[in-house]
Amino acid sequence: MNTDDIARLIAPLHAASWKSAYRGILSDHYLDYVVDGDRLAHWLRYIKALSAGDGEIYLATLAGEPVGFLCIESQDVDEANVRGAYVNNLHVLPHIKGQGIGSALLKHGARWAKTRGHGQMYLFVYEDNADARRFYQEQGWRVVERLMSELPDGSLAAELRMVKTI
Question: What average pLDDT does the chain have?
Answer without folding.
Answer: 94
